[in-house]
Design goal:
Elements lengths: L5 H4 L3 H7 L11 E5 L3 H13 L3 E5 L2 H11 L3 E5 L7 H10 L6 E5 L4 H9 L4 E4 L4 H19 L12
Helix pairs in contact: 4-5
């Protein structure tokens, strides 16, 4: 009988399915775009998401982030609000105005109810106030991706594991 170590339990369930003998799973690596003008936070989040198995793209301002969205087609965006050239609110508004359904999580030191509701009204899927737990942010990203994939999965799609 195979047992999972605690670090395996914390990983995305798709990784465990891929590791199962005889498993056929074609989920590509998830591409995540991090947008923040704080280099130390960007570095820490990049390491955390890469360790969790994500491919990480990085932008240091909102305008560069918007350009990366167009060029690189990430699966999800995690963006700060207070940034030069284009803030997170404007980024989210531009994405939604262009018809994008790309999942967006906004990060901010602004923890007021008005800022949170504004971010969500402009089209963000989640709003996380700083300081935050990296583990909780990872869990929120995974949950948002599960919901997004569930909506996009073709009817009848399934994972075949083989003989049990």
């Amino acid at each position: 009988m195979n047992t999972l170590r605690s670090e395996e339990l914390a990983r995305d369930p798709r990784d465990v399915a891929e590791a199962a003998p005889g498993a056929r799973h074609t989920t590509p690596v998830v591409r995540l775009l991090l947008i923040d003008d704080d280099p130390s936070l960007l570095d820490a989040l990049t390491l955390a998401f890469e360790d969790a198995g994500y491919e990480v793209l990085v932008a240091r301002d909102g305008l560069s982030g918007l350009e990366l969205v167009s060029r690189e087609k990430p699966d999800l965006v995690v963006s700060d609000i207070n940034m030069p050239r284009l803030d997170g609110f404007a980024l989210c508004k531009k994405l939604r105005a262009g018809g994008s359904a790309l999942p967006v999580i906004l990060l901010s030191s602004r923890d007021g109810e008005i800022d949170q509701s504004l971010g969500l009204e402009l089209g963000a899927d989640d709003y996380v106030s700083k300081p935050f737990s990296t583990r909780v942010l990872l869990a929120r990203v995974a949950a948002l991706l599960r919901r997004t994939e569930a909506r996009a999965a073709p009817e009848g799609a399934r994972l075949e594991v083989g003989r049990l």
